[in-house]
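Problem: given the chain below (176 residues), write out its structure.
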Amino acid sequence: MNSRVRSAVGAGLAALTLVSGSALGGLLFDEDPDWQEAEVTMPPPVDDSRLRAFFVSSASPNSFFVDEGSVSVGEDRVVRYTLVVRTPGGAENITYEGLRCATGERRIYASGRRSGEWTPMKKSDWQPISDNAYNRPRAALAYEHFCDGPAAPRDLEHALRLLRNPLDPSRTYGVR
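Solution.
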């Protein structure tokens, strides 16, 4: 293969990788090769007075909440929050999670108890946000609340404003 053909093939493969990466992450754009995650501190116990309900899907009978007292935007641009999922039968699932808007990824740091006790997840890696039934709450938070395309909220107040005022899910990335 001559150098022109190799160059063209290489450029094509690079473009294909970028496009397929975008499809996988949903929000995936240029990743900062020097990015490092900040140290994670577990949030306070869930407080019902701070729970903010958000819509996930009419297909789910569960109720979904974010504890506003747990929301943070780190220097690493990760939005962290406590997610509370309640079933119609009264069961409750509490997790402490993070979203990386720039890469379209999510991570579950720990599962929690009402007492404020946190159990770190054994496998807690950054995963692409997928809009399937299990991950729909994370997709809703990323696409309809916290992330404006690859942009994370500027600060805590901005994050809370976005949580309280969801985006129109039919819109594509724009300026808010």
